[in-house]
Amino acid sequence: MNSFSTVWANFKQIVTNTHWAFQLTWSTNSTLFLGIISASAVQSLLPAGLALSSRNLINSVSDILNGQTQDTDLVIFWLTMSAAIAVVGAVATNAQQFFNQRLRDELDLRITSDMLTHAAELDFAFFEDSEFRDILHRARSNMAGHFAEFLSIALSIITNIIQIISLLIILIAIQPIIVLLLVPISLIYVAFQWRYASKQFEEDYARATKNRWLSYYVSQMMDENSIAQVKLLGLQPLFIKQFRTIMIEFLARNRGLYLYGVIGSLTFAVVSSLAIYYAFALATLQVIAGGLTIGDVAIYGGAVVRLRGATESTIGWLGSLRWQTLFVSNLADFLAIKPKMAKTGQVKPGPGRGEIELSDVNFTYPGASQPTLRNVSLHIEPGETVALVGENGAGKTTLVKLLARLYDPDDGCVLFDGVDLRDLALDYFRQNISFVFQHFGRYAATAGENIAYGDWERLLHNPQAVERIAQTVGVHEMIEAMPQQYDTMLGRNFGKHTLSGGQWQRLAIARAFARQARLLILDEPTASLDARAEFQLFSDFKKLAHGRTTILISHRFSTVSMADRIIVMDNGRIIESGTHDELTAKAGHYAMLYDLHQRQMATTLNGKGKG
Asked: pTM for this one?
């Protein structure tokens, strides 16, 4: 009973996915889809048409040879009909190929665009969740190709079913025993192929995480950002061994699957061939007995072979359809994921001032057992520069992620200019915030474009404005020294010129300044700079950011001390607030961290002196 329920559920899934796929294809290009269906319908009836015209042609020739008639008109007619059917078949085949190629291209564009658009609408939290990354990995596995293949297989099955029915009508009229022989064999083979496809998909589904590990090992040994460290640490043998361990496991499991498939297919081929030639033998004996004509037996042999081929390929395609429909389910599941964060806000209060307020904010990462932020309340005046300080895990980065509305708080609210972020129009808020991450973007683009991306709609085609920003931020001379100045393609992916970590960081900060935002958030964006360079950079940046609210995260106290106010965090709470002098005088947590920092600096300097 459970087995029947499973088969029925799988059948309903195929019907549902086929209906959804046909709807999506129709909405993509209904003209091409109709062309494919029409060409497929013509092709499905060709074998029966050729069989009938061949039968009548052979019988007409036989009648002339036997002296029953001397009229050759029927011979010419059936020759003409056979030629016409062959020409129509050739036209239909080539037309279908043309329509398929065109439709595949359009589906590739449509599906990939839909996936990217949907991914752009999903919450940031999804991309930090390991389970979602498995879903994303499955959805990204050549999904447009799988969808096109699913569509092609579904249409081929429909075409073959029509072909099988038309051939069966002819064969039943000549020798009906073929139905009694082939139907039971075919049904057993359908069940086998169904199970085989399910086994294949279950294997592939279970391998998503390990496949991501394979991609990780390959990228670590081939990516320019990791290869130097991997070489110096001598990690290649370890990564290759781990890569091979997973691949060898896959190979072993694949061997079992392949053997299972071969045994089933071979069994069907042998048994169906014996059944077909048994029926053919009976038809031949009927010709000898005078019950059938030469034309009957001639087309019977050809039609039976075609029927067997059509049946075998249809059953094989049914298994493949089961396999491909599961990939289509992955696409449907991905597109069905809905953002959890409410994005219905429409409020656009006007020119932003940059006032920030957090009120009793609590936040726990999905799947975590302990909250990261606990009852955080904070008010930041427009134009104020605030530094967040605390040990790793204190909640600093999480707090600014909430300020940037990458997450929504579990409790409490975050206000921008007195309005809850959830009520603000998202495009309005994004225009009023600029964020430089510790792992900032190193875009494969020109130097000018790397800056313009900060406000691409305004700056991407305005090189004069980009140059003015570069001059203001102090990166103009650095860019002018590049081979093609602002048109220099950066990074090794598509160009030949790359930058040092510090140069990339300066571009990232110029990109942040390019956006006319009222709130600037800098989350340790200058980790690759030395203390003096960072101090100078933020000295300049504070002047440039005058009038804008700035939130800074840094472990360097020389930089932190420049802030108007320092917020000290520990274990997800704000425990101290004040200027550098006020907090050191207070002799609390900040003073302790500052003292540790000073001792570390002294030890480092002494070590250099001794060297």
From this structure: 0.66
